[in-house]
Amino acid sequence: MDLAAGIINFVDGIVNRDVRKEQAEAAEAQAKLEIERHRQATEQARLEAEKTKQMMLYGVAIITVGFVAYKMLGR
What we know:
The protein is mainly alpha-helical. Helix content is 97%, strand content 0%. The protein contains one helix and no strands. It has one helix at residues 2-74. The longest helix is centred in the middle third of the chain and has 73 residues, at 2-74. It is rod-shaped, with a radius of gyration of 32 Å.
């Protein structure tokens, strides 16, 4: 009976090791996906900030042109 229990424990250990290895690989793949999602979100935020900056520059330019035209026509 001790031999059978030893064999069962040995096989159980091998199976559990394989399961833990698969779980670790799945966790690693999940972490890589999460890193990629964060990278894409960061890039999207950077692009949105650039777009907002450009819009603000256009707004300042339009206001400046309007102000200069107002001053020139007001004279």
